UniProtKB/TrEMBL annotation, chain B:
Keyword Signal set for record: yes
Entry GO MF terms: electron transfer activity; heme binding
InterPro entries tied to this protein: Cyt_c-like_dom_sf
Signal peptide segment: 1-22
Sorted UniProt keywords: Signal
Lineage, opening ranks: Bacteria, Pseudomonadati, Pseudomonadota, Alphaproteobacteria, Hyphomicrobiales
Name used for this protein in its record: Cytochrome C
Length: 421, 97
């Protein structure tokens, strides 16, 4: 579809409900240029919202297809195929934005220019970075990119997810799975615990003599009471949880020997999933947007970097206060950021936003739990709106658990269509 | 199910124009996140084109607990009655196709 056309495709319409809602700025002459780096839940959403708002937008993405992390724990546990996580960019290309398949290798904030891997330079009036995460292969002794081939993290979905699923499917009777969760902050706070739940479900139903040891570098986690209550009910003989206080922090791994060490124990694993600490995607640091934490401080109303004017950071890479690193958060932040960018380019004051996050976790097939939050800027960060949000009731009947599982699945279909068409 | 999605052409016509006009047609705070769940084909249903009274009434009922919910009760408490009406009016103004 040509830019500015008022004859959108049906698929563009379906996916673009929010995009369509964004207002077109009144700007004379050439339209302002926005470059978006990263076509995940955040970047793809921002780009299509900007395109719908009449902005000249270029979306830079190295991958041919997007493989979603959200929902990928079900792939690990053999409940669905990786194809259910895989999305093309064809529909995005029909929304009027320019999709460039390339790696963004450098940003020059002073010249307002992004350089691509082939040396091409893209000029921008505003830049939105949505680079997701980098795994920190310097954080756990012994755990580097090579070790991840033996002990998959599967925290970026794709080959790693399939590898872990294959390893799990091949585990011997009476085998041991070790799963480690990092300290905060990291992508998808409840993700390791959903993964533990679904691996436990797999073992319970397929390898009943096998065990799962969940080593945690912290003592508290998202939806904790809900998970622990479910584990006690569903997986009492399968899942052993070891919090930080009980020695859950992984101090070293030996992928050749398939050994995971803590300060107190050495565990021989048949399958080891090590989820290491993370930081913002590399281009964010290259652009100067990441602070010493490795993540990117932002203005909570516009998502403009606190460190580099003219660059906005959304999604997992951003320090978004109380708002967790989730696909829903990235999508919601992208919509707010895109509107703010449109407003700023048009010389209008961006509104004080309100953002929502919802997240369902599957504990077993037909057994879902959720957390929700409503957020607004407060003291320079995104903060919970008092009285709102929270988790599913601890005493909910089975019918509610089943309904939450169904809603989680429905949300996955909806959000992926909203983002990828 | 209600007709699924807003007519983009109409919206573009609505928002095209002066900066002031465009500013008026910005979604009210919180509204843009709703379509993360409420879209065509979802179990949660579509909001675009529903009446403002229906949407605002549902938010009020979720907030008070009068209407059972798995999750919307927790979200509705993030918006007061006035904010809910603004969101409702905005979705109601989007004509379903």
């Amino acid at each position: 579809m040509p830019r500015g056309s008022s004859a959108p495709t049906r698929r563009a319409l379906i996916g673009g409900a929010a995009a369509a809602a964004l207002a077109r700025p009144a700007i004379g002459g050439t339209p302002p240029r926005v470059v978006v780096v990263g076509a995940g839940f955040g970047g793809a959403t921002a780009a299509r919202c900007l395109a719908a708002g009449g902005i000249d937008v270029t979306l830079v993405e190295a991958s041919e297809r997007y493989i979603a992390c959200t929902g990928s724990n079900a792939v690990v546990a053999g409940l669905r195929g990786i194809e259910a996580q895989t999305f093309g960019y064809e529909a995005l290309g029909r929304t009027g934005l320019r999709l460039v398949r390339a790696t963004a290798s450098a940003v020059d904030p002073a010249a307002r220019r992004v350089t691509l891997g082939d040396g091409t330079a893209l000029a921008y009036d505003r830049l939105i970075l949505s680079p997701g995460i980098e795994l920190r292969f310097d954080a756990v002794p012994g755990y580097d990119a090579r070790a991840a081939e033996a002990m998959p993290h599967a925290w970026k979905a794709g080959a790693q997810t399939v590898l872990l699923a294959r390893q799990l499917a091949a585990i011997p009777e009476g085998g041991t799975v070790v799963l480690s969760a990092p300290a905060n902050p990291y992508r998808c706070p409840p993700g390791p615990y959903e993964r533990a739940s679904l691996i436990a479900h797999f073992l319970k139903t397929r390898k009943p003599r096998a065990k799962l040891i969940l080593l945690d570098a912290k003592d508290t986690f998202s939806k904790q009471k809900l998970f622990e209550t479910a584990w006690a009910k569903l997986y009492p003989d399968v899942l052993e949880y070891v919090p930080l206080a009980a020695g859950g922090q992984v101090s070293e791994v030996d992928p050749a020997a398939m050994v995971v060490r803590t300060d107190f124990a050495e565990v021989k694993a048949d399958v080891a999933c090590i989820i290491p600490p993370q930081r913002a995607g590399a281009i964010a640091a290259q652009a100067g947007c990441a602070d010493r934490s490795g993540w990117c401080p932002i203005d909570p109303a516009t998502f403009e970097s606190r460190l580099v004017p003219g660059i906005h950071v959304i999604g997992d890479a951003a320090i978004a206060g109380a708002m967790p690193k989730s696909a829903f958060s990235a999508n919601a932040q992208a919509k707010v950021c895109a509107q703010a960018v449109i407003d700023l380019l048009a010389g209008r004051e961006p509104e004080d936003p309100r953002l929502i996050n919802t997240c369902w976790s599957l504990v077993a097939p037909g057994y879902g739990i959720s957390i929700a939050g409503v957020f607004r800027p407060h003291d320079g960060l995104l903060a919970d709106v008092p009285g709102a949000g929270g988790v599913s009731p601890l005493d909910a009947p089975d019918a509610v658990r089943a309904q939450e599982a169904a809603y989680g699945e429905s949300w996955y279909r909806t959000i992926t269509r909203d983002v990828f068409g | 199910m209600r007709a699924p999605h807003p007519a983009l052409a109409l919206l573009v016509a609505l928002v095209w124009g002066t900066g002031a006009r465009a500013a008026e047609t910005r979604p009210p705070p919180g509204a843009s996140a709703c379509t993360g769940c409420h879209a065509e084909g979802s179990a949660m249903g579509v909001l675009a084109g529903r009446s403002a009274d229906e949407i605002a009434g549902a938010l009020d009922a979720f907030r008070s607990g009068a209407r059972p919910a798995t999750l919307m009760n927790r979200i509705a408490k993030g918006f007061d009655a006035q904010e809910s009406r603004a969101i409702a009016a905005w979705f109601a103004a989007q004509a379903p196709r």
